[in-house]
Amino acid sequence: MLLTEEMKNLVPSAIVQYLDRYIVGQEKAKRAVAVALRNRLRRRKLPEDLAQEIAPKNILMVGPTGVGKTEIARRLADLVNAPFVKVEATKFTEVGYVGRDVESMVRDLVENSMQMVKKRMIAGVQSVAFEHAQERLVDYLLPVRKSSSAAGIPTFLNYLKKEQPEDVPPEESPAVRQSTRERMLNMLKGGKLDEREVEIDVQESTSPVTSFGNGEMGGIGINISEMLGGIMPKKSKKRRMKVKDALRVLQAEEAEKLIDIEAATQEALDKAQQEGIIFIDEIDKIVSRGRGGGPDVSREGVQRDLLPIVEGCSVTTKYGQVKTDHIFFIAAGAFHDAKPSDLVPELQGRLPIRVELTALGKEELRRILVEPQHSLIHQAVALIETEGVELRFTGEAVEEIAAMAERMNLEMENIGARRLHTILEQLLEEISFSAPERAGEAIEIDTSFVVEKLEPLVGNKDLRRYLL
């Protein structure tokens, strides 16, 4: 697979700089994923026989919740436009038990990959699809009459007579009909028919009832209508809507018809196999706590089920067989009550790179509020600004918010940066409620405002359990 010039320029330092725009701190983790990603790009430059032998350097991230583990993985996938899936290890059960099996994460990845490929292909045929949609819409607006004398059959001719000269012939000979279609098409392109209502046939989306082996039961998730392909015609229903809305619906249908679904499927499978990233969160929750039976056995069973997936095997999906040999796995967990060495030895060997993420202090929390692209403060200001209210945070106020978040994390369960979301919601609740009636005002959030709004909650140990 050829690398684009943009991907060739993704040196580790550039990858870290990109991650710095969204994640504060955690330099070791950023460097580790940057090197791992660069190695994936290096592998694709090698001869095919050698490239097949080089396995991805999967990563185990260890650190408390809310410090950026998931965000690092997600932003990494965005950077290279790779299929990405986040799963929680606790949702899986050992083969033979009711629940999700570990192979479902690979099926989810392939589905994600397929949607990415289809979206790109559909974007490339929009202009042609729009022309086809216009032709179809004209057919709906100007149905064929059985004879010129037929009564009660709706036509668009009467409507055209209001817009065109009086000498339009009443007969619908081929020449007349073609002329009528052309005039109607011009009116459609000119937007003159946008508000007119029309009844069209719309393809019904496949009902989930027609599928078997859904994700929760751990099956393959093959849809019956997809399995039968073109043998069974797609169902459609009549819907009445405005012409401009009908044009949008028909354009989407035409775009689907124009893409090569077989080529899309093959590309999606290749993309999932060579570029896919699976993030397995809470892997520490499936560590066996003892030597007993029951849940401990099931936890260890899930680990052993993960082994062939992470090591490399073939998984059956509704789009075909997928090899997991070169899918990039990033596992993460807090490991409060367990250690990475408590994982089954074989799984430890499949996660060769270990990275420890540190807890967030006051300074990191302050930076998270203001530094990342689309930071929390920036989001809050932008939301209130839509109501015509100018919201300003002083530097001291931001410091105070970070200090309170750190205090809450130390005195209660440490949920990292997630605490900032909760505190900001409590701080701005009254402003958000009254903002529509305060258009034109400028509101400054200073230290006294923060203390006034949050100190009663922070100081009340019973109340803060529920609100902070």
TrEMBL record:
<comment type="subunit">
    <text>A double ring-shaped homohexamer of HslV is capped on each side by a ring-shaped HslU homohexamer. The assembly of the HslU/HslV complex is dependent on binding of ATP.</text>
</comment>
<keyword id="KW-0378">Hydrolase</keyword>
<feature type="binding site">
    <location>
        <position position="24"/>
    </location>
    <ligand>
        <name>ATP</name>
    </ligand>
</feature>
<dbReference type="GO" id="GO:0005524">
    <property type="term" value="F:ATP binding"/>
</dbReference>
<feature type="binding site">
    <location>
        <position position="346"/>
    </location>
    <ligand>
        <name>ATP</name>
    </ligand>
</feature>
<feature type="binding site">
    <location>
        <position position="418"/>
    </location>
    <ligand>
        <name>ATP</name>
    </ligand>
</feature>
<dbReference type="Pfam" id="PF07724">
    <property type="entry name" value="AAA_2"/>
</dbReference>
<keyword id="KW-0143">Chaperone</keyword>
<feature type="binding site">
    <location>
        <position position="281"/>
    </location>
    <ligand>
        <name>ATP</name>
    </ligand>
</feature>
<feature type="binding site">
    <location>
        <begin position="66"/>
        <end position="71"/>
    </location>
    <ligand>
        <name>ATP</name>
    </ligand>
</feature>
<dbReference type="Pfam" id="PF00004">
    <property type="entry name" value="AAA"/>
</dbReference>
<protein>
    <recommendedName>
        <fullName>ATP-dependent protease ATPase subunit HslU</fullName>
    </recommendedName>
</protein>
<dbReference type="InterPro" id="IPR027417">
    <property type="entry name" value="P-loop_NTPase"/>
</dbReference>
<dbReference type="GO" id="GO:0036402">
    <property type="term" value="F:proteasome-activating activity"/>
</dbReference>
<keyword id="KW-0645">Protease</keyword>
<dbReference type="InterPro" id="IPR003959">
    <property type="entry name" value="ATPase_AAA_core"/>
</dbReference>
<feature type="domain" description="Clp ATPase C-terminal">
    <location>
        <begin position="360"/>
        <end position="451"/>
    </location>
</feature>
<dbReference type="InterPro" id="IPR019489">
    <property type="entry name" value="Clp_ATPase_C"/>
</dbReference>
<keyword id="KW-0547">Nucleotide-binding</keyword>
<dbReference type="InterPro" id="IPR003593">
    <property type="entry name" value="AAA+_ATPase"/>
</dbReference>
<feature type="domain" description="AAA+ ATPase">
    <location>
        <begin position="55"/>
        <end position="357"/>
    </location>
</feature>
<dbReference type="GO" id="GO:0008233">
    <property type="term" value="F:peptidase activity"/>
</dbReference>
<comment type="function">
    <text>ATPase subunit of a proteasome-like degradation complex; this subunit has chaperone activity. The binding of ATP and its subsequent hydrolysis by HslU are essential for unfolding of protein substrates subsequently hydrolyzed by HslV. HslU recognizes the N-terminal part of its protein substrates and unfolds these before they are guided to HslV for hydrolysis.</text>
</comment>
<dbReference type="GO" id="GO:0043335">
    <property type="term" value="P:protein unfolding"/>
</dbReference>
<dbReference type="GO" id="GO:0009376">
    <property type="term" value="C:HslUV protease complex"/>
</dbReference>
<keyword id="KW-0067">ATP-binding</keyword>
<dbReference type="GO" id="GO:0016887">
    <property type="term" value="F:ATP hydrolysis activity"/>
</dbReference>
<dbReference type="InterPro" id="IPR050052">
    <property type="entry name" value="ATP-dep_Clp_protease_ClpX"/>
</dbReference>
<keyword id="KW-0963">Cytoplasm</keyword>
<comment type="similarity">
    <text>Belongs to the ClpX chaperone family. HslU subfamily.</text>
</comment>
<dbReference type="InterPro" id="IPR004491">
    <property type="entry name" value="HslU"/>
</dbReference>
